[in-house]
Amino acid sequence: MKYDITIIGGGIVGLATGLHLIQQKPTLKIAILEKESKVALHQTGNNSGVIHSGLYYKPGSLKATNCIKGYHQLIKFCEEENIPFEITGKVVVATKQEQVPLLNNLLERGLQNGLVGSRKITLDELKEYEPYVQGVAALHIPQTGIVDYKRVAEAYAEKFEKLGGQIFFQTKVQGLKEINGETIVETSQHNYITKLVINCAGLYSDKIAKLSSKVDLKIIPFRGEYFKLKKEKEYLVKNLIYPVPDPNFPFLGVHFTRMMKGGIEAGPNAVLAFKREGYKRTDVNFAELAETLAWPGFQKVAAKYWKTGLGELYRSFSKAAFTKALQELIPDIQESDLVDGGAGVRAQACDRTGGLIDDFLILEEPYAINVCNAPSPAATSSLSIGETVAGLALNRFK
Ligand SMILES: Cc1cc2nc3c(=O)[nH]c(=O)nc-3n(C[C@H](O)[C@H](O)[C@H](O)COP(=O)(O)OP(=O)(O)OC[C@H]3O[C@@H](n4cnc5c(N)ncnc54)[C@H](O)[C@@H]3O)c2cc1C
Questions:
Q1: Cis (ω within 30 of 0) for the bond into 268?
Q2: pLDDT by residue (tens digit) across 5-15?
Q3: Ligand 1 center from residue 286 Cα (angstroms)
Q4: Which domains does the chain have, with CATH numbers?
Q5: For residue 176, how far is its CA from the centre of ligand 1 (angstroms)?
Q6: Cβ(70)–Cβ(380) under 8 Å?
């Protein structure tokens, strides 16, 4: 069980990193350790399936640069591997006059990020794109697309293994010990000896990071719940319909998404999850919840966003309130048109005093590289993040 590089986490980021490493240096012995019995069972397999264009992110940020680079890499990969995807385009719709300046800012940001063809559209054009949407102003973003990220992750895994990488399932990492320049990775199965650990553990990335560093971060889990449109109501949505995001809240707001595997999803909202891998409203892990509530950075976030947070919690328990939020975009939607659509949990890093960390965060330690914050659009950006992390790792094997 001796490996040059051991990656913790078989989500899309860990797998993309493994794939880049083995493609660039096939002589390295690389293992991916995953605590579940399959890849992509957490964030990667429970997301909106959107190939983001790069519209929202601060120009020059890691999110902006990796999203745009990753977008092209992902599409090329899907074409080469025959993975279905579609560039559907999307509309972003202001439903109130006071949102129009924010919509204009968004377009400005998108153009600064290099989006071509994104533009403000007339309300008649909006009706052509999405006949059932109401709004006072709208953008059309032609680059946005859809894909099934579980399928993408499975393809990364297959290719990684074909090139000689190894994935070990049901192998939960429990400890890291540095001895004479090597690390012993203690797991629920065996010990692995490795020269370098790469932490891509998503919702548990902070716990793994703490095993090899003094990094002072906490993952705050935010559940995103979805409804699905009943089959007979799918005609209400042609492609992707987004609201103008609330600038006081770091999520995109409930939207409509046509899914690559079929159907239309509405959501996700963003509610504090009482358990990191808690996909149901009733899932609670008291130790994890207590840790979240006691974290000073979280208390700062709660003080800042408590009103929005309570609204999200209310919408989580009240289907009528969720429907009302959706009716702002499509007034014809009724509560009876929606059926339960599952949920995903976002891993959002929060520092001790500053609050939620907006950008992707990758930290290097003597024997480890920690991917500490990889929320949306990390699925779109996966190949670019993987390339960056692989580059940092390979610098150590020159
Ligand atoms: C509701 C929702 C909607 C989203 N929508 C989009 C979207 O439309 N487009 C987009 O680009 N992004 C989207 N995202 C973000 C995207 O899904 C994530 O950024 C991405 O999947 C992160 O991948 P990851 O590999 O870091 O994490 P994960 O997929 O969570 O993988 C981490 C893996 O680590 C494993 N692990 C954890 N601890 C251990 C341990 N101790 N030992 C071994 N293994 C361990 C876990 O089991 C898991 O498989 C969304 C996310 C959510 C939750």
A1: yes
A2: 999 999 999 99
A3: 22
A4: 1-85+146-216+360-398 (3.50.50.60), 90-142 (no CATH), 217-351 (3.30.9)
A5: 22
A6: yes
